[in-house]
Amino acid sequence: MILATNKSGINIFSSKSLFLFFTIGFSLFCSCSDEDSRNSLSEQHLKGKVKSLTETIYSVDKTGKISDSEFLEKTLYRYNSKGNKIEEIHYHPDSLSELITFKYNLSGKKVEKRWRDTDNEIDHLATFRYDKKGNNIEKRLVETDGSLMKKEIYTFDENGNNTIEEIISFEDSVSERRMFTFDKQHKLIKEIRYNSDDRVPHRYSYNYLEFDETGNWTKRMQTENRIPVRITVRMFEY
């Protein structure tokens, strides 16, 4: 640190070092503020103070109409006052299929995801790794004894969209690769899924049909080779 001495012999900051001190401090503050502002709602590009979100997926016929009133899958997401996801419940038509809870550190960054069984005991869990921008670039799924089940690697574009997802087995081989395309509002519009042989088994497109007053989409059509296959309906609690 550069110091200057006044006539009384007291050390004081030189103007140059003082300017440098405040510049660095301001930069660190901005960096921390940007990272602290990220939460589950911002990562999912949700608008407003969402308390819970229910997503229900239905199969549709070739005209896009729901072919069966019984859903294929339903997922309930719950968020805390900081906008972080604290619970995720997956349902199948006949039963509760999965209960998932989340753990965050003091700065609000997600550090653990826990799958629980019907007795609320931890069945397996996931840990996360982040890049300097705060993007979750790796998820490792492990047994409760710490043995690796698989890991997922994520690649992000300059707009913070997750454009590539690679699922790697415990044998360190890529078992599936997914590529995503987003519009300017961060909405997913195209998805390509590759298997381990890098063949293209599925090409999906997504069209957004309805939005609520907050600006979150509430109905989305999924097509494969231009043929409607599924529709997702979302209900929000604010």
What does it look like?
This protein has 238 residues and is mainly β. It has a single domain (40-237), classed as Porin (Beta Barrel). 11% of the residues lie in helices and 53% in strands. The chain contains two helices and 16 strands. The strands form two sheets. A 14-stranded antiparallel β-barrel has the order 3-4-5-6-7-8-9-10-11-12-13-14-15-16. The protein has a two-stranded antiparallel sheet with strand order 1-2. Strand 8 (122-130) and strand 9 (136-143) form a beta hairpin. Residues 1-5 and 12-34 have low confidence and may be disordered.
Topology:
Blueprint: E1 3-5, E2 11-13, H1 15-36, H2 40-43, E3 52-59, E4 73-79, E5 85-92, E6 95-104, E7 110-116, E8 122-130, E9 136-143, E10 148-156, E11 162-169, E12 174-182, E13 188-195, E14 202-211, E15 217-224, E16 227-237
Antiparallel strand pairs: 1-2, 3-4, 3-16, 4-5, 5-6, 6-7, 7-8, 8-9, 9-10, 10-11, 11-12, 12-13, 13-14, 14-15, 15-16
